[in-house]
Design brief:
The chain is mainly alpha-helical and 267 residues long. The protein has a domain at 187-263: Arc Repressor Mutant, subunit A (Orthogonal Bundle), CATH 1.10.10. 56% of the residues lie in helices and 7% in strands. It has 12 helices and 5 strands. A hairpin with a 2-residue loop joins strand 4 and strand 5 (246-251). The chain is globular, with a radius of gyration of 19 Å. The chain starts with 22 loop residues before the first helix and ends with a helix.
Length: 267
């Protein structure tokens, strides 16, 4: 049985009806965080100094609100993410890390990817259309009465932007109809997710880690995770052993903070 998300809120927000991926803006803000800029100065840089080159005050406020909600609400975690992204200096790794944290911050994005979208991928479909997501959305609406106030236009835009996010982060391609794109998960990103899951009480032991829904954000099944755990063992991130149905998993470092310190050469 898959474990629940480790962080996303239980209610659905319509925030995806506005700004979608904001990859460049997010990376620019995280670079300032990594450089040591405090939150109040960072906010002023975005809203007053226009470091993101947004022409209108309304646009600046909108971008700031989205980036803050997705990545900056917990400042210690924001610093950790920013240092990781800035230190590794690999654009693909950076994109995947902010994609992961983005999904954890937005329940409807998380549920759509780990649910109907990943299910279509696993079933051998080549892609996803908005109509596929609409069918799913209709089925989950009774559990989410908060969406009953959303207009048809808002609903369509949210679902459309779910697919836009996947396209922008490289998991899909296309315009009207999005098709799946094979994407390799680099070991530093796998390790980040592994240690992030280790902090969550919902994923105890190796079986909990292997079955965690978070891996579905990257379209990985349990066999994929087992294979990557073996690679992570070889890389020194953990010690994973499997003998028949018996599995053990010991992490090399005590927590994600220590993992980040090592891979970014902070210690």
């Amino acid at each position: 049985m898959n474990s629940p998300t480790i962080e996303a809120a239980s209610t659905y927000s319509s925030s995806l009806s506005g700004k979608a991926s904001l990859i460049e803006e997010t990376l620019a803000v995280l670079r300032l965080v990594a450089a040591g800029q405090p939150i109040d100065e960072l906010r002023a840089a975005v809203l007053d100094s226009d470091v993101l080159s947004k022409a209108t005050q309304a646009n600046r406020r909108s971008v700031w609100a989205k980036v803050h909600q997705r990545y900056l609400a917990d400042w210690s975690k924001a610093r950790r993410l920013a240092i990781t992204v800035d230190s590794l200096g690999d654009r693909n790794i950076s994109n995947l890390l902010i994609y992961y944290e983005f999904c954890l911050s937005d329940q409807i994005l998380y549920d759509a990817v780990t649910g109907p979208i990943c299910e279509r991928y696993e079933s051998g479909f080549t892609g996803v259309e908005i109509s596929d997501l609409q069918t799913w959305f209709d089925s989950v609406e009774p559990a989410h009465p908060e969406v009953q106030s959303w207009s048809p236009q808002t609903r369509k835009k949210v679902l459309s932007n779910v697919l836009t996010v996947l396209r922008d982060f490289g998991f899909m391609a296309g315009v009207a109809r999005k098709t799946f794109q094979p994407l390799y998960l680099p070991m530093p990103v796998f390790g980040y997710v592994l240690y992030r899951l280790h902090e969550a009480p919902q994923t105890p032991g190796p079986r909990g880690v292997i079955a965690a829904k978070d891996w579905r954000l990257f379209f990985l099944d349990e066999d994929d995770v087992v294979g990557l755990l073996s690679e992570a063992t070889n890389a020194g991130y953990c010690i994973f052993k499997r003998q028949g149905d018996v599995m053990t998993l010991d992490l090399t470092w005590p927590d994600l903070e220590a993992y980040v310190a090592v891979i970014t050469r902070q210690i």
